[in-house]
Amino acid sequence: MLVIGTLIAIALIALALFAARGKSAQQTNAASFNLAGQPVAGQADAPVTLVVFEDFKCPNCKRFEEEFMPELRSKYIDTGKAKVVSLNFPFLAESARLPVDDSKFAAQAVECAYVQGGSEAYDRLKQIIFRAQGSESEVWATKSRLKDLAGSVEGIDPAKFATCLDNDETAAAVEADKQQAEKAGVNGTPSVYVNGKLVQSYDAATVGAAIDAAAQ
Q1: Is the domain of 143 the same as that of 192?
Q2: Is the torsion defined by CA of 156, 127, 107, 57 positive or negative?
Q3: 117-164: per-residue pLDDT in tens?
Q4: Which GO terms describe its molecular function (predicted)?
Q5: Within a domain: 60
Q6: What is the span of the domain harbouring residue 181?
């Protein structure tokens, strides 16, 4: 009996060590992002951070913003439970081999808005661009069109915005976002990370459950 008891104890200790290693591995697998100087929606000290990678030519990103984000905002962002950090992953125009990389131009446009008017201007122009979204297989987010769309955004000076966009002044910021996406292994949009962990679906219920779990 003593031998059996000793063996059981050893087995339980081994299982506990295995579980601890597994939990540690899961924590290590969380992606790490440099979020300094990025547009943020919500309170800076919110306990849960969502990182969202989007392409303005992506129909699923449009759906995420228009169908699911309002619920997430009311339940989590506006209540201080979570904040959202937006990063660009412009890849669709390049993947479709379009003659103009308007995925990149749209990303540069919202970054130009951010330079002038901060997170609020970024978010306003982002919503306008998604509402104006055309086909992902056609060039529609031209610099001329983006200037028109930005013209009605509060906090944006049209002349300064045009100079910023024409001179590709925010191209480096967009490229830095893209490099972060590639480093994390992002292969599609929208990609939503909750405290560094990729959420398997972008619908409000799944993202909300991930926020709740992260807050515990």
Answers
A1: yes
A2: negative
A3: 999 999 999 999 999 999 999 999 999 999 999 998 998 999 999 999
A4: oxidoreductase activity
A5: yes
A6: 40-215
How many Cα atoms within 13 Å fall on the side-chain side of residue 111? 27
pLDDT at 29: 77
Considering the domain boundaries, does residue 105 fall inside one? yes
> Which of 85, 79, 78, 127 lies closest to 106 in space, CA to CA?
127
- CA angle (173 as vertex; 100, 36 as ends), nearest 5: 150
| pLDDT tens-digit readout, 66-125 | 999 999 999 999 999 999 999 999 999 999 999 999 999 999 999 999 999 999 999 999
pLDDT for 10: 52
Q: Are strands 82-88 and 48-54 parallel, antiparallel or unpaired?
A: parallel
Question: Which contacts (CB < 8 Å, 24+ apart) does range 98-101 have?
Answer: 98/137, 98/138, 98/139, 99/139, 100/139, 100/142
Core vs surface per residue 28-47: b (16+ CB within 10 A) or e: eeebebeeeebbbbbeeebe
Q: How many domains does the chain have?
A: 2
Question: pLDDT tier at 5 (50, 70, 90 boundaries)?
Answer: low
- 3-class secondary structure per residue, 63-115: HHHHHHHHHHHHHHHCCCCEEEEEEECCCHHHHCCCCCCHHHHHHHHHHHHHH
